Structure formats: C-alpha cells, structure tokens
Amino acid sequence: MPRPTSAAGPAAVILALVVLLGVLPARVAAEDAVRSVRVVNLPPVQHVTGTVAIDGTIAHASLVAFKDLSVPPVEPTETGRLIDGGTLQASGFTGLVLSLSARAGGRALRSGNIGVLLIPDEDAIVKAFDEDGQVLFPLDLGAPLTQGSFRLTATAQERFTVGFPRYRVRLYNTSDKTVSVNLFAYLTN
To answer: Is residue 70 part of a domain?
Structure first.
C-alpha cells in the first residue's frame, strides 16, 4: 500500500527554520542594546596638588647594624642593668629579620645565652620597663655561648612582624665573660 505524502511536512519545517532564524538576531541585538549604568564615586581620601614625581627607586628594605657593643654579664631579668644598644627606627616597614653574633673575650667557664630584647619605644611601655621591670611586647633573640674552646656564637636569622615605629635595643649576657655583640636588623616590607 502506498504511503500518503504530505506536502505540508517539509514546508512546516522550512517555515519553522525561517521563524527561528528571524528571532535569533533580534535576541542578540536586544542584548547589545544601550544600558543605563550608575557610577558612584567614593569621597576623595587624599587631595593631591602640584607635581607628583618619584626620583630613583623606592626602598623596600633597609639594613641597620649595631656593631661592637660590649656586653658584660647581665641577666635578662635585670632590666635596670641591661646594656643600651641604641634605638631602631622601624617606621614605614612591616617586617624585621634579626641576626645576632657575639665574640667572647676569652674561653667561657660558664655556658650562657647572649641575646637582645627590642622593646617598643612608647611611653606606657617604657614606663612599665623602667619603673616595674616589666618587658611588654618584646622582640627577643638569643644564642647560646657554651663552655669550651668556642668563643664565637651566632643566631639563626629570625623574622618578626613590626608592630611599633621605634624599638629600644637592650642586650644581655648570661655567660661569665664580657662579649662583643653585632646585631643586624634588616627591615622589610
């Protein structure tokens, strides 16, 4: 039995394709239409006037050395006797790498530690240190000096986060010999 053929079948498919192709460009065009955008600017934080220029490179690190500091025997708990090594200016930096080395004047008969306390140079903290012997927020680094033939000691480099713009450098020595200390402070960002 012959199959009935319908001329409407292929014509309907062609008509559907034409309608579909006609709708697609309209949808793409609608997506490319001009849209209204609202921009909100934050209030100005800093007013800059005049010429802005940077001469040379911007320093991202600085090495500060405290060399040949003579440190006789003094315990770290004897805050009134700690050796004053000076002041470390850390303003503008976020990190600090400390390295300490010490050389004894002779062979140590008693083992001990050679170390440094960096105490924030802020009025309330300095007052607690000077009047009550309290060491608040210190950065502390030390190295052992052992009995025997070794007269030289050094610490591993240790990284600290800078929390204050200035630190007072105070040194101690729990061995029985006076030592010559070198402290290197590498300030970084």
So the answer is: yes
